Amino acid sequence: MRVLMIAGPGAGKGTQGERIAEHFGVPHIATGDLLRDNVSRGTDLGKQVEQFLDKGELVPDQVVLDMVREALGAAKKDSGGFVLDGVPRTMQQARALYQVGIELGMTADVALHLQVAEDQLIRRLLARAEQEARADDTEDVIRHRLALYREVTEPILGWYNSRGILVSVGGERPVDDLTREILTALEMLRSVVDAAPEGERRSVDLTGLDAAFHAAPQGSSSG
Length: 223
Ligand code: AP5
Prior knowledge:
The chain has 10 helices and 6 strands, in the order E-H-E-H-H-H-E-H-E-H-H-H-E-H-E-H. 59% of the residues lie in helices and 12% in strands. With 223 residues, the protein is an alpha/beta fold. It has a 6-stranded parallel sheet with strand order 2-3-1-4-5-6, with helices on both faces. Helix 1 (13-24) packs across helix 9 and helix 2 packs across helix 3 (44-55). The structure holds BIS(adenosine)-5'-pentaphosphate (AP5). BIS(adenosine)-5'-pentaphosphate binds at residues 7, 9-15, 31-32, 35, 52-53, 56-59, 64, 86-87, 89, 93, 124, 128, 136, 145, 171, 175, 178. Residues 7, 9-15, 31-32, 35, 52-53, 56-59, 64, 86-87, 89, 93, 124, 128, 136, 145, 171, 175, 178 line the site of BIS(adenosine)-5'-pentaphosphate.
């Protein structure tokens, strides 16, 4: 299984990405984690990107693409699958990643979108700021990350939708419930992925399930 996670800051890419990777026995490649690891180890790359991370700016495409190419090369030798979390974030990255995927014979099967309202994202990240010390979890920087997501990342979803590989899931439910829903959807898609080439697939929109789960019965007998 080869999955791209595309969602706003705090939507649960890391939380769900790790679980999906474990379920399918593939590496969880999170660009934010890789970059932060370089910063904390004080590598040349870390020094180069620290300012971008602290301000919530995107690091230059080439830095990310080199890192991802290397990680995908390792994934190819291993299971051949991956969960890519945090990339692509721009249309240029999406196209470049597609080329890398073609070269390596491992283009994505699914682009998984977690849909979460902005006020919820801000609440989650401010709550995380009280537990962890991520330099970019201040309200101003969070708002900037959200604006960047809206402007340059969200539009990519249309491209994956037109390729028939977009799976949209409502992300405002308890973590375990969401994992179950995502894994069920991915398991169902696995057989389709194996049987149908990309052009013959259809995107899947499960965001309506969120509303269904939120709807209180209100004593009605409709079930
Ligand atoms: P990155 O690390 O990718 O940060 P992000 O996209 O802002 O996402 P987060 O890690 O904040 O959130 P998440 O969606 O993973 O949610 P999580 O599971 O942690 O990138 C950081 C920076 O690196 C970027 O700003 C940029 O500078 C650079 N960068 C990275 N990739 C790049 C690229 N491709 N190009 C250029 N620059 C790049 O959950 C968040 C919180 O919510 C947690 O506390 C969690 O416990 C909680 N939570 C999760 N799920 C739920 C739930 N269902 N209900 C309630 N709470 C939940």
